[in-house]
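Before drawing any conclusions, I needed to go through one protein's amino acid sequence and its backbone structure tokens, quoted below without any editing.
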Amino acid sequence: MQDDLVGFSPDPQRDHGAQHTSRAMTLRSPSSEEQALKTEQHRVWQQEVQHFLMTYPFTARLVMRLPLMMVVDDRVPTACTDGERVFVNAHFASRCTSALRRFVLGHELYHVLLGHFQRQYGRDPLRWNLAVDAEVNYRLLCDGFSLPHDAVLYPAQAGKSAEAIYQWLLAHPQPEVDTPFDHHGNLLASPIGGHRDGTIVVDTDYRPVLADSQRARQLTQQWQQTVQRVSETSWPGSVPCGMEQMLHTDTVSRVPWRHVLADIIQSRAGGMPSWQRPHRRHWGHGRYLPGRYHKTLRLVVAIDSSASTRSHWARFLGELQVLLVSADRVDLHVIEADAAIHRERSLSSLHELNALADEATPEGMTLMGGGGTDFRPVFERVEALVPDCLVYLTDGQGRMPTQLPSVPVFWVMPEEADLSVSWGHIVVMEET
């Protein structure tokens, strides 16, 4: 199936050759016939949801809580979700069989439940979309859904998280031979190319909510609570296998954090998209695409210096070293805190880290603290610093903030540690 959001790679069937790509493209709204098609397909798909209740009642009850929007927009060739609604291209919808309609609805629902729209963290867009599709499609297969013949599914990675599948895909020599069903990333990416008549269709009904990190985490938490409530009012044995995994498995992914960190740094090292600096090479072809700019990765690293973490201080120092050697452009703002913040320092080189290492004793690194643990002072400080993300080195035992932070959070802990949170990413320190 073709990608659901154009803008990342040209589709040769839509470019129609150089004689067309050099012509200026014009925007148009859906025609009256296309508006009528939207209305018709919305009715057809709503009827499908009603029939859905007969065969997959648990999944259908969740789908009914996710508003369906029919659009005719060149940015949505198939379907996508912003975490609050599902958008389906009416032309694509008109070609779907009943089984494919149910697959699409279940597919987008799982993306929402698993929070895929807020877990990319700068990873390569193609491999990330393949990874999340593989995670979703395996769950749908377990639930008894009929998958399209070209659905992304890697048997060797069955049952693994999107993050783990992504790591496996990094060794995939030609990821472009696979095509994700839909895209999770920039929902408002500009279309590339257009139609033979030189037009690009833009539908005003396609207005995805571009949630910030805090809103995205709230949405994921709300949906997980909804799944729990629906399960409590369902007949025994009616919960599909894929949903059962969500109910009885820690929903916060535990992955080697150095892999996650490398993904973020690689994205920053390669530059970030910027509409303020458009890519000039495409101007002559009538395309207005974002350019890229390089940015120093600004991290706040909070070290839990409470008494319970003393045996881990030497490992915490090792993780700081990994942060500094992972990229040329990374600034660390290190906070030492237990129930209160005791010291803050900035590190941007290994020389500065070596000076910090000189404080180490045979028993481990010397930090200021040694009392109980309260995470709240650090989170209050982070709101003032506004870094790219917060890395919290801890054993997981402490008082949590009542409000979600506005930046991504990575809880970096030893394998044996335990932290019960419904936001952020729990990642494990690798043994040295």
